[in-house]
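Technical note accompanying the year-one report. For the benefit of new consortium partners, we illustrate the data format agreed upon in the data management plan: each record pairs a sequence with a structure-token string. No post-processing was applied to the example shown here.
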Amino acid sequence: MSSKPTKKRRVDSQPIPALRPNRFRDLWAGQVAAERVGETARLSGWVHRRRDHGGLVFIDLRDRTGIVQLVFHPETAGESFALGHRLRAEDVVSALGTIVERDPETVNSELATGAFEVQVSDADRLADAATPPFEIESFSGQVSEEMRMRHRYLDLRREHMYRALELRSRVGAAMREFLGGEGFLEIETPTLTRSTPEGARDFLVAARSAPGSFYALPQSPQLFKQLLMVAGMERYFQIARCFRDESMRADRQAEFTQLDIEMSFVELDDVIEVNERLLAHVFAAVGGPDLSLPLPRIGYDEALARWGSDRPDLRFGLELVELTELLRASAFKVFSAVAAAGGAIRAINAGRHDLPRSALDGLIGRAQELGAKGLVWAYCEAEGWRSPTAKFLTAEEIGAINAALAAEPGDLLLLVADRRPVVNSVLGALRLELAERFELIDESLDSLAWIVDWPLFEWDQEGARWDPLHHPFTAPDGALDPADPGAARALAYDVVWNGQELGGGSIRIHDSELQTTVFALLGIDAGEAEERFGFLLEALRYGAPPHGGIAYGVDRLVQRLLGADSIRDVIAFPKTASGVDLLTGAPAPVEIGQLRELGITVPVKPRR
């Protein structure tokens, strides 16, 4: 579970762009200022708001730089005065007029241009707008997301949405500026490629020239960027479009944008150092948080032990505490049986929060939803515990738990006993939910850190196999013992911001024999490896340099910078949570003839 951004940021705005005067405009709305009083200017934009006072018509004209008030006066507007009466919200207008100061009592302090107005002498309606399905200027947040997505071109007219896309553009420009200055080459990699296992389902594209065969849209440029290192490019980056056919949520889309970076002849410290400076440069360029470098580094095992997550939010406490050895010999079988089976008993001291029984039962239910068999709650009191579980524990056990958790009278204690991954996952998620419920998060803080020293593999209990914690091309830290894969550590690193992963990467395997060994440990035999990754293995045999890199989720980075609740708010044309594009109606059926050309047949549903 990741912590969603809750702090709405005020990021720096982009300077007003240069303008070449033409018949539509010679001035942006945001440029109406004191030094231009008395000038004649032509402006163009949309009718943001209209106020008709009979003798005068006031139009708030909106363009991408701001809003300025136009005044249609019968004595100065001439034939355009009648047009002022006919204009409606979202009409597109071009107006010529004189910039004047407003009377002091009419100054609008909420607008940057609020001390001035344009007395119109001539105006044209360039486009007559139909009545929008929702109001742009008084948007209250009550419009459904479905309506916003269906009419996304209207939704994007809102200042907040424009600022999101403006910020996104500036983030990309800052990335290019920094990486170009560091000698990185921006190189595009294919969009139509081969399907390879990278952790999620591929989107497949039928190949008309090879019936029965398919391209895959890339989940990432991983293999191609490694090939570019073999090719001697040495420093590569790309702001790449990536595709994963997986369930969507607030911080995930089926198609997303990734900043991809790869470097040759580097070690882990080299990659981290240049990326810390990259983040500092981007943040400074767009008004993000100030970074104190170097960023902290936290070991993977420590992150799980203290916060129950490999992407911890460090802005508050509620750290997990180990109780397994204290309760290994307990007569309470729920605890002792878990400890005997190799599981863990861990707890959180949630502090002094007196919750009703219904809320405590809700915590038990939530723990079960997250995968635990149950949860023990207890209130520390001077004489012991107030808890249904208190009668199963000795006074000495309760005292030892209280001491381990530094519990004081009134503190709420939450304990989970299960397999260690389940315990960490459940308490890690509850930690975030409790912090939000009890308002423990200091929103003035920004906490960035690297998570390092990852295991190379993790054991998949259900599949009874080893899986890579990052991806199968991650290099081990030191020698790899095929007889003990679980002991191997990885040269991998993730950067985490307030509980959300911004990016992750690793030093790569650059030896074909080692890569083949890793494939074998993952259950990919030599034949399958050659069939699916033969081009990579062959390339590694032709002299591959040591190399490593990282990838950032650009959508997620902009979401965090802006403080948006969802990455859909920082993507121009996103999909809904169900993967539907409400604007265009995609996905949609295609003509039977197109399918025949591809050699594809689709079952026809019988009509009822």
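Partners are asked to follow this layout when depositing records. The chain has a mean pLDDT of 93.
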